[in-house]
Amino acid sequence: MAASIVRASLNKFSWFVVLAMALHHHICSVAIAQQVPCFFIFGDSLMDNGNNHQLKTVARADYPPYGIDFPGGPSGRFCNGRTPADVLAELLGFDHYMPPFPVASGLEVLKGVNYASAAAGIREDSGEELGGRIPFGGQVENYKKTVSQIEKLLGDGVTAAKHLSKCIHSVLMGSNDYINNYFLPEFFSTAQQFTPLQYADDLIRRYNKQLKVMYSYGARKFALHGLGQIGCCPFKLDGPNGTACVENINDAVQIFNRKLKLLVDQLNQDTPDAKFIYLDTFLVFLMFVSGFTVTNEACCGVGKNNALLTCLPFQTPCDNRNQYLFWDSFHPTDAANEYVSRRSYRAESPSDAHPYDISRLAQV
């Protein structure tokens, strides 16, 4: 079934790669009206833009060839170019990308901050084998500090809360709770403690707790990203030709995604003054993967599928980066991030976003 969907989608989506090759990897020069006053980002390496610089960790991307297609070069983004957070900032009409928390200061915090940290998870222990990182709870603590700054800048808590209620809060968390926890038994025992269903319940409970803290500090518009097909990243691909996705990983991720979507419905019912949306990247992956020439190898890396070791300092990456789905062992290319983010912003299928997409969230 999945294969037939992909084949049927080839003609529709292959055009996107051609379009992506023509796009400039910087803020679009065509003026777009800013749709919300601010944009706050929570997540892991898919969204990180420099929050791990000061940490003792191997989860860093502050060296070339990371950022080879990004203005200014390496910045901490785990990509050749832009992250989904960057693309969404463009689509929302911002004339800049949201600064990472350690360097965000002054009036710029009024327009948003990026708190995402590579190797971070919903659970505190996820990713700890890689060193320092800022889990979801730590990112929310940093958000509290930003809210305090905004209260001082705007004069009082009431004005700050009114400002924050109009901002979009984007959350993409959970990948490391699987690849750097549940499916890493040499470091973690969670797979022995929980069934996949129980583990998803535990993650959703912790996730919900942090959302409620954010709500208590003024957040009212939430864009919650589901997890992608982690079992299909180059590092995880199995089989003799390195092409078969690891289905038990994808099955576990889908349990989490279904529960996150249900949480969105529950939160919309329980907190009518807030708006929550769910963004499906799992199915979108099936729809656009065939638009790329190379889907089972990383553009930059070492070993099987160029993915046993991630992109090394000063390594020469592939030349045809817009034809690759993956930049390194785990992370998509700029072209792939562009496509997924555009469908999150403006849904092309009813399954892309629930109950509506980011463009409408900005308006309500």
TrEMBL record:
Please give one Gene Ontology molecular function term for this protein.
Answer: hydrolase activity, acting on ester bonds
Look up the domain of life of the source: Eukaryota
Matching InterPro entries: GDSL, GDSL_esterase/lipase, SGNH_hydro_sf, SGNH_plant_lipase-like
Q: Which GO terms describe its biological process?
A: lipid catabolic process
Keyword field contains Kinase: no
Instruction: State the compartments where it is located.
Output: Secreted
Q: Name one GO cellular component term.
A: extracellular region
Q: Which Pfam families match?
A: Lipase_GDSL
Q: Which positions make up the signal peptide? A: 1-33
Q: Which UniProt keywords apply?
A: Hydrolase, Lipid degradation, Lipid metabolism, Secreted, Signal
Write out the similarity annotation: Belongs to the 'GDSL' lipolytic enzyme family.
Q: Check the record and name the PANTHER family matching this protein.
A: GDSL-LIKE LIPASE/ACYLHYDROLASE-RELATED (PTHR45650), OS01G0748500 PROTEIN (PTHR45650:SF3)
Q: What is the protein's name according to its record? A: Uncharacterized protein
